């Protein structure tokens, strides 16, 4: 698959990039191996200073970087600028906390001294997606680089200029040559990199299908892995929820990034006593979101990133409607250029339909009802995914009783599921394994080494 910038708002092919040759990939791997020897020996204070400078550049260049995201994958410009600034946050977080996270951890033992130290692994391949093309790179790269690892970046084929911009920004921040390299690789070339003995780990953010393929190769060659995969997050509204706030946050959670987010609220599970009120509020809120040119600051919903993604979403909605689901708003591809799909609300969704069982990666809300807490839990867990869940109730004890019963890597009570540098992020079941962010994310790509001394 060629690497191409295709403007999803106009369908124009803006720029194409040749794949790196096998020889170029080989040289990049060797540069990464050599750079690791020097980078791991670089004082931690120096590594943290590079992250601090990267944070400054991300803030200074947020408008230009947001514009690249808008051009390549259609993100509304204000959201692209916010994404760049969030990347600055994660860089600063690790610049301020890496020393504590990597400090030797003293333990009691039968020796005169015992402790755990955290040493870098070596070159790590990052296979990254298009939907948050900066954030999902930086949330891995900031702790990995701070720990002393080197990074090979294989970005999505439709966001090549984002990958180039990330590499350029790190070099400008003072990262030595070879420590982070952007590569345009085919899937077959990436598999060979994963298998190479010089590579010590691989992280992938993407679909469950892609995760399985990469994990199959990485597992065969015993590489450290983190897999951040798909989601079909439940947004559970109990009968005692604060309804106006639940509606507002639910609309935000479904439309962020034009609905193209693994942790977006996708299945709205609503107590039957408040179902009508919630449906009416959500439909009104989503219908009022401006859809259009993502370069305009008032736009809330831009185009989907690619034509095939838009067409798949439309097919899932059509199949669900044919099976008996009812459309409360949206539901049809608009005329004209661009890969647009309107904010859509589906209700009366039958079991077995795409809206009930599949991940809908776009601004489509599936609304289902329940009568008891047990039914709510069964619906929430009735999916192969387990990334995040949002639970709405005014009763703290009810929330505490439900939280351990929900199969998800994160449960947010009376709030929107989000990634935060201070909190570990990841899923269970088909949503993957391993964690990013916080202390736990930094420790995924280190050798947790026991030291015992007499």
Task: Describe it.
With 454 residues, the protein is α/β, with parallel strands linked by helices. It has helices at residues 22-41, 44-60, 62-73, 77-102, 135-147, 160-172, 187-195, 208-220, 243-255, 275-287, 307-322, 354-357, 373-381, 396-402, 438-442, and strands at 3-7, 12-17, 105-106, 113-120, 123-127, 150-154, 180-183, 201-205, 224-228, 233-237, 265-271, 326-329, 344-347, 364-370, 388-392, 410-413, 432-433, 446-453. Strands 12-13-14-11-10-15-16 form a seven-stranded mixed beta sheet, sandwiched between helices.
Provide keyphrases for this structure:
alpha/beta
Helix content: 40-55%
Unreliable spans: none
Bin the strand percentage: 15-25%
Give the class from helix and strand content and strand pairing: alpha/beta
Rg from Cα: 22 Å
Strand order of the largest sheet: 12-13-14-11-10-15-16
- The separation of the N and C termini measures 57 Å
- Mean residue pLDDT: 98
Question: What shape does the CA trace take?
Answer: globular
DSSP, total strands: 18
Largest sheet: 7 strands, mixed
Number of helices: 15
């Amino acid at each position: 698959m060629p690497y191409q910038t295709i403007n999803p708002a106009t369908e124009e092919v803006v720029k194409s990039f040749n794949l790196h040759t096998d020889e170029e990939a080989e040289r990049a791997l060797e540069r990464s191996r050599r750079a690791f020897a020097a980078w791991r020996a670089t004082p931690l204070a120096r590594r943290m200073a590079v992250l601090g400078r990267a944070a400054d550049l991300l803030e200074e260049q947020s408008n230009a970087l947001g514009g690249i995201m808008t051009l390549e994958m259609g993100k509304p410009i204000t959201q692209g600028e916010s994404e760049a600034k969030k990347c600055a946050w994660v860089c600063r977080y690790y610049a301020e906390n890496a020393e504590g996270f990597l400090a030797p951890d003293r333990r009691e033992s039968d020796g005169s001294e015992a402790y755990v130290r955290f040493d870098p692994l070596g070159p790590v391949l990052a296979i990254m997606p298009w939907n948050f093309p900066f954030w999902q790179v930086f949330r891995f790269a900031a702790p990995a680089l701070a720990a002393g690892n080197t990074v090979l970046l294989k970005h999505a084929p439709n966001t090549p200029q984002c990958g180039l911009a990330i590499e350029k920004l790190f070099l400008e921040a003072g990262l030595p040559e070879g420590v982070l390299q952007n590569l345009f690789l085919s899937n077959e070339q990436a598999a060979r990199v994963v298998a190479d003995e010089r590579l010590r780990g691989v992280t992938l953010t993407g679909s469950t299908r892609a995760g399985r393929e990469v994990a199959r190769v990485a597992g065969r060659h015993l590489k450290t892995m983190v897999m951040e995969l798909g989601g079909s997050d439940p947004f559970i509204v109990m009968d005692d929820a604060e309804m106006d706030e639940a509606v507002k946050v639910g609309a935000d959670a479904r439309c962020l990034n034009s609905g193209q987010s693994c942790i977006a609220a996708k299945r709205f599970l609503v107590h039957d006593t408040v179902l009508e009120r919630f449906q009416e509020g959500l439909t009104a809120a989503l219908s009022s979101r401006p859809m259009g040119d993502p370069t305009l600051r008032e736009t809330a919903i831009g185009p989907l990133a690619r034509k095939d993604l838009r067409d798949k979403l439309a097919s899932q909605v059509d199949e669900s409607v044919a099976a008996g689901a009812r459309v409360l708003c949206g539901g049809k591809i608009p005329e004209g250029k661009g890969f647009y799909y309107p904010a859509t609300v589906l209700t009366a969704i039958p079991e077995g339909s795409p809206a009930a069982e599949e991940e809908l990666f776009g601004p489509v809300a599936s609304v289902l009802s329940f009568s008891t807490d047990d039914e709510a839990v069964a619906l929430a867990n009735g999916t192969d995914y387990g990334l995040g869940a949002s639970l709405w109730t005014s009763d703290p004890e009810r929330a505490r009783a439900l939280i351990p019963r929900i199969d998800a890597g994160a449960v947010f009570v009376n709030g929107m599921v989000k990634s935060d540098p201070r909190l570990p992020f990841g899923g269970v079941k088909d949503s993957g394994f391993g964690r990013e962010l916080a202390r736990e994310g930094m420790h995924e790509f280190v050798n947790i080494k026991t030291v015992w001394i007499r």
